[in-house]
């Protein structure tokens, strides 16, 4: 089921103040809290939905991203999830003693993994995480975009450390319980009636620290590597097209899957041809006699050869001729668009005596008036 707009969830307008947002969330959270609605799955879902909405709208930066990009702006920023840090931070301010004497973690942990960071469960164990995807921009020649090509790109990305094989520990020494949080992954402090939990700053919430960090990767389990890779550019790509290389991005921490490499394409302009979708356009000059008498002319194509094109007699400057199947290859097919030739009749700037006399004779033969009346038009 599609998500509801966060403002709609809390029942506030898009210009609502932070205080109005807090009041709206408090009302919904108290009304739908599972302790007050035992066994009511719908109330539980409404409680979670309201908490997620407040986590975004109650934070200035998250709210700005949501207003600008919608769910993509906040889901992407949080790796596809919510850390509910805003709810944990403002809990006492919002609820006071509204839920009685129950501990902070008793209210939220069963739903959101309590701890002020991304939900990890009470074990505090951090599992594999997906690596980051990368972007690489490349310029492609016009003709290569029409017919496709292969290119080589060189880029830098994170890979598993070749010394510790991604474990982060020296010689397979493994991990030990974090001395700061004693393995819980959280540190707690009391604030009035509530115990406020936050992610352990020493272990980052995993509950364990590496006993002897790898000297090569300094305990991260990852190293940066320069790599070259062949990329097949399909025929028909245009500026803004992208090619995705799965698993060629950064390696994931703790053995997680690697991200992807996105190769974004910019097509270089051509000296003679202009592209519109899968069609090509070019301009070809012809003489007055060619335009008047007609005949065949040779026209270059993007394929690298020339073709003969018939010009009908009396053709006017600016007329377009169409040649089928001489355009751009259509993506994922063997079909091609068309080529359009715009004819430009060239007027000679200088005439010799003989040519001038012939032109005068032609004008007389055509019955042209040397001083014709202007063409009437309406103002």
UniProtKB/TrEMBL annotation:
Keyword set includes Cytoplasm: yes
Pfam families: DnaJ, DnaJ_C, DnaJ_CXXCXGXG
InterPro entries named among the record's database cross-references: DnaJ, DnaJ_C, DnaJ_domain, DnaJ_domain_CS, HSP40/DnaJ_pept-bd, HSP_DnaJ_Cys-rich_dom, HSP_DnaJ_Cys-rich_dom_sf, J_dom_sf
Matches recorded under PROSITE patterns: DNAJ_1, DNAJ_2, ZF_CR
Residues in CR-type domain copies: 148-226
Any one of the GO CC terms: cytoplasm
ZnF CR-type span: 148-226
Subcellular location per the Swiss-Prot or TrEMBL entry: Cytoplasm
Cofactor (UniProt): Zn(2+)
Task of the protein: Participates actively in the response to hyperosmotic and heat shock by preventing the aggregation of stress-denatured proteins and by disaggregating proteins, also in an autonomous, DnaK-independent fashion. Unfolded proteins bind initially to DnaJ; upon interaction with the DnaJ-bound protein, DnaK hydrolyzes its bound ATP, resulting in the formation of a stable complex. GrpE releases ADP from DnaK; ATP binding to DnaK triggers the release of the substrate protein, thus completing the reaction cycle.
Family of the protein in this entry: Belongs to the DnaJ family.
HAMAP family in alphabetical order: DnaJ
NCBIfam families named among the record's database cross-references: DnaJ_bact, PRK10767.1
Stated name of the protein: Chaperone protein DnaJ
Organism taxonomic ancestry: Bacteria, Pseudomonadati, Spirochaetota, Spirochaetia, Spirochaetales
